[in-house]
Amino acid sequence: MHTPMLTLEQLNNATQAEFTAMLDGVYEHSPWIAEQTWHARPFSSLAQLKRSLIETLRESPQEARLGLIKAHPELAGKAMVTKSLTAESTNEQSKAGLTDCTPEEFERIQKLNADYNAKFGFPFILAVRGPRGLGMNRYEIMATFSRRLGNPVEFEFDEALRNIHRIAEIRLNDKFGTEPTLGNLVWDWHEQLACHSEPGYAERGELCVTYLTDAHRACARELADRMRNECGFDEVTIDAVGNVVGVYHGGNEQGADPQAKRLMTGSHYDTVRNGGKYDGRLGILVPMACVRELHLAGRRLPYGIEVIGFAEEEGQRYKATFLGSGALTGEFNKGWLDQVDANGVPMRAAMANADLDISTIDALKRDVSRYLGFIETHIEQGPVLNALDLPLGIVTSINGSVRYVGQITGMASHAGTTPMTMRRDAAAAAAELVLYAEKRGGAVEDLVATVGMLEVPNGSINVVPGRCRFSLDVRATTNDVRDAAAEDIRNELKAICERRGLQYTLEETMQADAAPCAPEWRLRWESAVEALGLPVFRMPSGAGHDAMMLHRVMPQAMLFLRGLNAGISHNPLESVTNDDTELCVRAFQNLLNQLASDLT
Hints:
Layout: H1 8-13, H2 16-22, H3 31-37, H4 46-58, H5 62-70, H6 78-81, H7 87-95, H8 103-120, H9 138-148, H10 153-176, H11 181-193, H12 214-229, E1 235-238, E2 244-248, E3 250-252, E4 255-257, E5 262-268, H13 282-296, E6 304-310, H14 323-328, H15 347-353, E7 371-379, H16 384-388, E8 392-398, E9 400-409, E10 413-414, H17 426-441, E11 448-450, E12 454-455, E13 463-464, E14 467-476, H18 479-500, E15 503-512, E16 515-516, H19 519-530, E17 538-541, H20 546-550, E18 556-561, H21 578-598
Parallel strand pairs: 5-6, 5-7, 7-18, 8-17
Antiparallel strand pairs: 1-2, 2-6, 3-4, 8-16, 8-18, 9-14, 9-15, 10-13, 11-14, 12-14
């Protein structure tokens, strides 16, 4: 018997009891969540309903949230064996193959369940239908189970709730008969692009795509082919530095207008070694999907869209970060051409091997009068959105940063015979500096200070450290805040060393200006997100992005997408869901439509 699909109109018009019954099974054995969410009606979108359910749970007492977690069955546990799972859980565990475990696998899962319960006091919760909704296999499930056993208790409590929300999201999609088709499309494109990886990494199932390697060039060809054959771009080229450039002309009912001003967008398709699938690439594939939809509809906007897959941003093979976007702003450093990689291959030779014409690099500099601005979508690469259960965030500014390397020099001496009051301990001084940097970085909102490297050269267990090398990274949304913090930390380093009778050196190795997002473009992103029925959340970008380079010549603004696994990035665990990706595409479409309205 066919069950009719639920609609928002039905929910909005339902009594509290009817509303609760309609959402039965979304949250395991917990009708009180739907019951309380009824007060938030009416809902303008499914995304708003999902968010309201999340907020109900976030505002509930700790005991109620713990009760929800405990209402869930163990994976492949007693309830599965005795066939007492809910219909929803039976379906999910069956799709994951948990009903087909071998005796050895079943025994291992039981051991994991016991260890997990002993540590956390609640069952392991995992959205086994996974980030794409098609189901994780039992090997992925067991690997995730083992990894999460190492989490702190408070973090794992929240991670269990995040997985419960993902389970609820998929169950709601089923009830409404809705599918995130554009999210699935973009998610699948990421998977296909990730098939290209370099030798030494590909064999291990790892992703590594550095500048102008065979894997890198294969990615460029795949992007160009997809732009040309699947998305309907009017012009597609691979330029003199390897950027993949697709142009969809503006126009009207009468046809295309190649001279129309353009909106530029894009991000990078290179990766770090053993990196993730979504860093950078999301910002290429989301606008490609939007152009595809425009092309399928036979629709032109009053402006063109130029989507660029920047060839290099990570600086992995050669120390030339933002090479791709820098070429468009006229900041390609010709000195980079003589850099050599780890195998002694000069960049110049790598470009020649890729059939790139070095003599035309200068011509890549854009005439900014032809552009309306630059926008970029990107995974957050951090834990904030994940912790807030928010799929999208509006970037206010890309942090300015300054980096230093330094060394503190004291006197190496015998650990047993040198009294504590007579030591000149370089490592102890560095430890003081680390704590001060941590305190100073936490004193101002959106300021961070990090000592990421500490080394005692030729250190020994029975020697008071005579030298300690260290790094310092300071970032903030404005140059003034960054510079004030850096100055305070430098002064503290001086004071520490004077008090301890030590010497020090400190060398500035990099400085990048903050890139505040243009207010009018940031407001467009806010309107685009709000139109989805989602709250507007503003946040800084602590990482650098191609938008920083374009900021130098035109207005720019960014949208962040939540990452799973605490937002981890530059890591194989980097992940996003199809539903979040769908919202990102829809927000991008909203912005395109809003801009079209603004220009007419």
